[in-house]
Amino acid sequence: MLTEKDFKISAGKGAFASVSFLRKEDNVLYFDFNYKSDEVKSPEKVTIEFELPSNKVFSFWSPVNQLARGLAMSCRGNYSESRLAYGAPILSAIGQDGENLATVAVSDAKTPLEIKAAINEGNANVCYRISLFTIRIAEISEYNAKIRIDLRNIPYYDAIKNVNFWWETDCGYTPAFVPEAAKAAVYSSWYTFHKNLKTETILEQCRSSKPLGMDVVIFDDGWQTDETCGGYRRCGDWQVTANKIPDMKTLVDEVHSIGMKFMLWYSVPFIGKESDSWEHFKDMVLDEGDRGWCCLDPRFPEVREYLIGIYEKAAKEWGLDGFKLDFIDAFRLTEVSMDYDERRDFLSVEDAVHHLLIDVMKRLRAINPQMLFEFRQAYIGPAVKTFGNMLRVSDCPNDSLINRVGIGDLRLTSGKTAVHGDMLMWNRTDSVEFAAKQIIAVLYGVPQISVDLTELPKEHFDMVKFYLGFWNENKDALLEGEFIPLNPESNYSAFIGKTDKKVIATAYTGNLLSLSCSEDEIVIVNGTGRAGIVLDSCSDFDASVEIYDCTGNIIAKYDESFGNLTKLNIPVSGLAKIIKQ
């Protein structure tokens, strides 16, 4: 068993650090990490190293690595970076059969740290390194955190979910309240229009999207500037441009009359050098802003109050239902912002961002307790979950693979917080089956649609209607049921969502799907790109079968006696509904 003697610690000059054993619970080991300095100061980086056998280790999982799952050499390392507004402090070693081999997690999700793992070429062990204080923090003389190492032979996804439960129950990261609207399908303006926003065009999309089952609209970048090109040179004033939006309150009221919630985009940290606010805040920034804009420094109380006041005023005057708060992970200390400034009330950027978010949520939820807040990868960890109630996959336009992987990763660490896919877009000249793959990739999260619904070909429109209808009818299994993501090393070969009576399984990479079919209703979605699915049902039963194409047409209906292997002629991007007799 791993003991405190197996840890090697480097604490820097004038500091002492130790790891002590706390307890063992069913092969889950808990250790206490303590740091002390001989003076109050911003600590140097501290490293904690230990080794475990590499037996059966086939891949690694972290919430920030996306497609990088393989083993790494000691000079590189698999890593999990964590700070308040980035990642989460967890790294998991997994066997090829999906079993957990070692899931390492830290209790502190706010202090900047990294967890790395790599193969020791000398002895074929896995060398783990936890590095704390990887970015400068506030001056301290003492620090404490818990290290949790799960060595149980259980499914890897259960090990990760158990860490999330530990963060929520034992580490003080109680997740924010999740209103029902946070779990509603969304229409987003971003990929459809980018900054080319107009009141009537967005209302046309809302009138088309509401009947399809979308109950929320996100009004993205472009409402605050006459520009239609990229960049954030004009960010910072957050005044509505009348050339695009004559009256924001009227627009919000119109959207409400359609029956949809209205969320508005803000780039939280950015202030452009062409904004009216630049002259006032130009010496309260974190970087030089060679791109034409900078990141505001939240360590200045004036900066925090300015941002909060903007959101508070918008919520009150326009009747907003939510905020898409973007780029929070861009708050980072640089060489430009290292020098002391007496106007700051925080030394640590992480502490200042935390305080900013506390005050934002407090004041906006006082206006509307059901207020929606969308954050996106990679600021998705347990600390951020105490504020946001919608966590979205990072931008991946037209990329169903990255969207699928992002959904799987987020579902594992998000608990009951609503997980959203990135906004869905596709080329309307593409086949309807390929377009359907975009929605199939995010079935186990909340879909956000961002195509021009008024110009879609009819079969594409029918596909969206069918799959959003299917998603809304089956949210109990897809979104709120037991979630089983298979084969992370293969970028998730299949997702399974289960209730007591229903199971919905989606195959993504292989046409053989093994499933313990104890439920009365079974749905198989074919996301593989090839026709036909062979079901290994693990039992014998009789059932009625309906086969659908991706636009909702029933193309076959029959009774079937299922045995160990049964072929279902499900077309590409179609599905089968199986009801036991």
> For the report, how would you describe the main beta sheet?
8 strands, parallel
Number of DSSP helices? 12
The residue fraction in helices comes out at: 10-25%
Strand content: 25-35%
Average pLDDT across residues? Answer: 96
Total beta-strand segments: 32
**Strand line-up of the largest beta sheet:** 21-20-19-18-15-14-13-22
Judged by helices, strands and strand pairing, the structural class is alpha/beta
Which features characterize this protein?
581 residues, alpha/beta, 8-stranded parallel beta sheet, 7-stranded mixed beta sheet, 12 helices
Task: Give a written overview of the molecule.
By secondary structure, this protein is of the alpha/beta class. It has an 8-stranded parallel sheet. Helix 3 packs parallel to helix 4 (248-258), helix 6 runs parallel beside helix 7 (349-367) and helix 9 (400-414) packs parallel to helix 10. The N and C termini lie far apart (51 Å). The model has no long low-confidence stretch (mean pLDDT 96).
